[in-house]
Design a protein that fits this description.
nine-stranded antiparallel β-sheet; two-stranded antiparallel sheet; 11 strands; disordered N terminus
Length: 145
Amino acid sequence: MPLIAGRRSSINGIYYASPSFGGFSGAVSTNLREGVANSRVSAFHVKYEGGPLFVALGYQDDELTNEKYTRIGASYDLGVAKLLGTYGRAKNADVDEWSVGADVPVATNLVVSVGYAQSKQDGGKAERGGCLRSVQADHGVRRLL
């Protein structure tokens, strides 16, 4: 069995990914109830990819941890930079996460990425969270044989 997110997951699953229809596509998945936990993880996502715009929505229901995850993300390519953003929520853990960023091509094979992300957990009256700032350079070096 493969290890997913720190726990064993069933390999007997069902997954369907649709073809793209005018830029819209999606996928659904679930697994058979097996093993000691006898639990199921079900998920779906839908997305739109058209021209400079990308938008996606995903949802996962994990019976073993009794958690439901929702995530939405989008990007828009301005040509000089691609703007990126996400928002996610883990319902029962009461965690909200979001991020913003940009990919800036500075040469034909060099992209500089900047981003900011924040995660916040509301545990009743006490709030916990964190943030992350990042800068990255991606050089598309390819080795020719």
